[in-house]
Amino acid sequence: MKRFMATVAGLTVALLALPLLGLLQRMPWSSLGNPLTNPATLDALRVSLIVSLLATVMVFLLGTPLAWALARVSVPGRRFIRALIMLPMVLPPVVGGTALLFALGRQGLVGQWLNQWFGITLPFTLAGAVVAAVFVSLPFYVIAVEGALQSAGQHLEDLEDLAGTLGATPWNVLRRITYPQVLPAMGAGLALAWARALGEFGATITFAGNLPGRTQTLPLATFLALETNPEEALALSLILLVASLGVLVGLRDRWMPTS
Amino acid sequence: MTALTLAGETRIGNLSFAFDLSVKAGETLAILGPNGAGKTSLLRVISGLLPLAEGTLNLNNQVADQPASKTFLPPHLRSVGWVPQDRLLFPHLTVAENIGFSPRATDALVAQLLEALNLTSLTASKPAACSGGQAQRVAVARALAAQPAILLLDEPSTALDTESQELIHGVLASQSQVATLLVTHDLSEAGRLADRTATFSAGVLKQ
Amino acid sequence: MRSVFLVLLLAVGCGGNQADDLTVFSASSLTDVAPLLLAQANQTGTLVFGGSNHLAAQIADGAPADVLLTADLSLLDLDTATYQTVTFAQNHLVLAVPAGNPAHLTGPQDLARHELAIAICAQEVPCGQATMNLGYPMAADTLEPSVRSVVSRLVLGEVDLGVVYATDVQAEAKIETLWPTEPACPCVTYHAVAFTQQGVVFVNALGQENAQTLLASYGFTQP
């Protein structure tokens, strides 16, 4: 039995590693410097870093209270709300982008009012690319933090109660007791969210469009480079590959919450 | 002067517990009774973690909980020091940081408690490095460092080594201004520390 | 590499791979009209859609096509003189606006206005090359990976102005042509290349009047 499992496991790893090998084997190592230093690539890299980091900040600001509420506040239909939050993880990103367009686009449900009242239009802006990235990466952070809060469970709530009786205000309890307990999970969740935001393609191109220097991120540049310049696409893929692998190796076995 | 008076009732699900007690400053009241009788609920009501369903709780001559007048003082505004049965030390903080956690704790008081409870060698250690007796001493010190008017002790020296028991009893005996509620199974402990005893039976606490 | 984008479509009435079935490789831009052209010619067969560049590469690799309908004959790395080749349709770029021209635009000079939301094709794809060749300064807000996505931006009202093909406007009621109102070049010329004897019949039929009428109803113009 053990041998069978090990064999299947080995083949599966090979199946996952094969595309990466293919990518690396075709990589124009000797001339990698050219595509990696050309202004268009650097533009895309810059946009990618700005968008993914802003998205990570937003994910932190919006996702932390959400994770806390999911773990601590019992409202009817909580399972449904949780499923809703997880949806972007399984939804094709293009569908997510289309949904964002219908909601926040110039003619969208909310977007038309944003446009009329405040003159804000999100599509074709860097802010729009950030919104798309937040949409797809938020669940990664929320489940990590919610999972940590759930697994810390009653014991953590007792610690918080005790801290309160010692005179700490609720905000101080959150800062001095709750945060330190879930900090590793927050870090892991943020790293995953950042990696997801960095790799985001479908929702971005659908919602934010593609303009070099403004909304064209590395994945978008990679996709378009494939049409005309496969070598450049390979070089761009390498950047994304190294960044993603770096995050996952850095997280080691903490990459998913234990619950 | 009465530091604590409580006459009222609280409910948890289908259970209801009625309390009637008062404790003066410097006095220690031992609460006896079987498990599940409502001892933990009593401590939670006093510390503000469980509201009264009816009645009045006065702490330090101030109404802390009175449903009829919609008065409820949150835990951090009550002058209560709580030593829970399972200690609940903060795992990410050192022994000294645990003891000094309360905003009411002063450095001098923390140092004095470290000394009095023989914890100076553990100042920079994390709770995980403490023995059971040492952890219990930290929990007592942390509650006292908050300079409480009311001290809540939940089985403070049950199953402890003699040294820890002696140290804890010594420190508690020196708290002349504090009204203490001592929840215990241990009649000898109650005898040593308490001025009076009260007993729970059938969900009702009588002095 | 990008997986080759293929849409396999069985023409109406096709009952399988019969001896007289045609295999037609067709540019994606003919997706709507190609099945009708096949039916009109009383042919059954298999239609394979894709970008002209991908189709040309497959034929160079020996894919068994009877006919190629391509938007760019120069991509075909074969001596086309040896095959029956017919120029059967033309398409051209137009400036398109949402129906009713809500932003009251007038012509190519609007392409340079920064306050407008403008979508065009990315330079990396053929429609983007053609757009660039129009030679107007453009303050585009997004460079789309396909002409279809420019169309959907216009349909959804997310942009005020877009550059698409005349046939795209014909197929979509929610957009209209701003400029030029008459067919003009630069333009895309569609060629049909027959690789087999059976293919020649179909290719020749494309030049006939009823095929041309059908093509015109889809917005294509006569070469």
Mean pLDDT of chain B: 89
pLDDT < 50 runs, ≥5 residues of chain C: 1-17
Query: What's the architecture of the largest domain in chain C in CATH terms?
Result: 3-Layer(aba) Sandwich
Strand content of chain B: 25-35%
Q: Which term fits the overall shape of chain B?
A: globular
Kindly report the greatest chain-chain contact and the residue count on each side: A-B, 17 and 23 residues
Here the CATH topology of chain B equals Rossmann fold
Q: CATH top level of the largest domain in chain C?
A: Alpha Beta
Average pLDDT taken over every residue of chain C: 86
CATH architecture of chain B: 3-Layer(aba) Sandwich
The helicity of chain C comes to: 25-40%
Number of helical stretches of at least 4 residues of chain B: 6
Which radius of gyration of chain C do the C-alpha atoms yield? 18 Å
Describe the structure.
The complex is a heterotrimer of chains A (about 260), B (about 210) and C (about 220). Chain A is an all-alpha fold and about 260 residues long. Chain A has a single domain (about 35-255), classed as Orthogonal Bundle (MetI-like fold). Chain A has 11 helices and no strands. Chain A is globular. Chain B has about 210 residues and is α/β, with parallel strands linked by helices. Chain B has a single domain (about 1-205), classed as P-loop containing nucleotide triphosphate hydrolases (Rossmann fold), CATH 3.40.50. Chain B is globular. Chain C is of the alpha/beta class and about 220 residues long. Chain C folds into 2 domains: about 5-90 and about 185-215, D-Maltodextrin-Binding Protein, domain 2, CATH 3.40.190.10; about 90-180, Periplasmic binding protein-like II (D-Maltodextrin-Binding Protein, domain 2), CATH 3.40.190.10. Chain C contains 7 helices and 10 strands. Chain C is elongated. Chain C starts with 6 loop residues before the first strand and ends in a 6-residue tail after the last helix. Chains in contact: A-B, A-C. The interface of A and B includes residues 159, 166, 170 and 172 of A.
